[in-house]
Here is the input.
Amino acid sequence: MNKSFRRVAYMALASTIVTGCAFAPFEMQNDSVETPQNALVTSLGIKRVVVDKTRLEPAALDEIRNGYADLVGQFSNESLAQQLDLRLADVEMLLAEERQVALNSSAPETAYQEAISAYQRVLAKYSNEASKEAILYQLSRAYELQGDNEKSVAVLNTLLAQYPQSVHAPEAWFRQGEAFYSQEQYAKAARAYEEVLSHDQGNSFYTMAAYMQGWAHYKLEAYDKALMSFDSMLAASFNPAPITSTSSAALPKINQLSKGQQKLVQDSLRIMGRLFSYKGNGQAIVEFYQTQGNAPHSYLVYNELAQQHLDNDRYLDAAEAYHAFASHFPSHSEAVSFYVKHIDAFILGDFPSEVLNAKAGFVSTFGAAPGLYYSLPEYVQQNARPYLHQYLRELAQTQHSFAQQLSNPDKQNALPAALRELDVDALETEAAHAYEKAQEYYLAFIEMFPSDELAAQIQFNLAESYFESAQFEKAITHYEHFAYNHTEHERASDGAYSALLAYTALLSESAGAQVEDIKAKQRQSQQRFIARFASDSRVVPVVQTLMQETFDETQYEQALGYSNWLLTPPESVTAIVSDDMRLSALLVNAHSQFGLAHYDDAEVAYVALLA
Here is the structure.
């Protein structure tokens, strides 16, 4: 028996000893249990001898192979002989792989021949070998690593025919698919890959099989099938954790994958983007997932398609792809981002009119209708809020300015040619529509941002738009709300006075019993204006008007109060009260005193008048 044989025999013996020790009774392994013998040793004062365990260095593969080879044919027990032959074949396989790794290159033509021969001998000698399934698998691998794909596939066919439920079946089918694909037999390759996909998605060949099946269908120009295969590849890549939420934190992201997987996913997305571009752009993706069932990763497909268009300066197509996703999935955490990219595509392409329409679409999707914004998930609200703040203001101001242009004959020359050709009635209709849109945006801003520093100005602009479009009651409401809730605003007095002008306009088009009601409200508004904005120069004519009206109505107490105001006005408006106003105020004062039977005071006033 040579040295190699002895070492192998020793290793086997050591293995038996270790195994035996592992199953020794618990009491024999536990040093804390004191047996009678241990007690005697302790009483004699003899110290225990501690033996450190020594780990044997593993034998080199070629030594093990030589040891197994020396043992072949020396056992009469058929079971042991089978095991020995199989171990020898496995070691030959390991040696070949080790040499290939060491050379860092593809295997020489005969590198795996010893392993192949060894596996063939086992199959030939032991037809009832219980490990035949594993042997066929290893033999197939050896042929493949040797570069003989034809024989490798032939062995796989045998394996699959005899063991269709083998644990190696997914790999066997995958390697068959690879062989067919390399031979450009794409239909056969696609069917082989489909067998892999029929197994549990958790098998390690599932993702690559779906990817390669996609390419096989692509080569066959079966583009719909290719899309389904690539989509299956994406779905498998972002498993095993199923995604049940569309919040940003839960979304599948490419950078969370391994580097190799990232490349496969990006390539799949690239091909899918190209195919969807041919099939109808973003809407084609919508229809695809309506049939397949929407997937958490689908937003990546839309983004890829849009990015491809941007790279090719196809801005309108890019905008459509982004919009297709955002408009169909407004509650998705990427919806706001995609809608903004949709707008940005128009900006990059220099389509200003489309930019305005796109911003209007954003507002309609995320916040124009009452309560719409608050019906969206919180993460969408947070994403949309800054854009709504910007777009609502821009849209309102643009529509308001457009309405003014349509309503003003002096500005109509700057209108587009199509609008300049309209008659007066048609222009008024267009202006009314523009005012309506402006008011819608102003109101939406006020509802969403009531405490914003711009809310007061927006309130004033809204009132102006109602006044300009002859909606005087609404104008009054918003002028007064602005003026008396934002009294420190630089235009607060303008709002209060504009409300008085709106009352005058409203009275001019009113009749019957409503006139008296309007007049009563007008007077209240005039009194509020005088009380709050006494230093405003426009207060003087308002006081004069009220003085004359109340005197004509024989309301002498009120008339007297207004006349006294004009006779002793606030210092800031003293210069505005003319001599004629003072004379008129003194006359009303005298007559009102007389009417109240305050004759002494009336006499003083008359004397002053005569003077």
